[in-house]
Specification:
The protein is mostly helical. It has three helices and no strands.
Amino acid sequence: MIRKSTRFIIRLAGFILSAFLLVAVTLIVARGVALRGGPDLEWWHTGKINSEFHESNKPDIATLDQYLANEVLVFDELQELVKSKAPALEYQHLNRYRMGNDSYPDKSGHNLNRSSQKRPGSDCRRGLVIAWYDRFPIQPAPPCSDV
């Protein structure tokens, strides 16, 4: 008798666990499908920046200096896009496109969205150039003057 009741309890627990897992997986899948139909993208997701670097620009931009010059054009174009598309940003305190607020990239004096170079001091004995983009290979730095 105990054996039959134990078997029944194990089967019932397996059924309940299977039903719970089925409901949980169904809810997760349903939530994922619902999220795919989210809100429309904002203007900063869809804005077209003509100066942006693409694979097809590789022959025209072969050095780091050319890349940095192109980056200046990209940020200038982005600033014009912000001015033309975002007139209502004045009331949004934490919007990163509103000049002067706490999250505006240029407020601290060093915009981390832009490329930068760090040059060694005059007491340098050796140097190394590190490039984040594979188009600009790592090259030995020019020799530093001995102090």
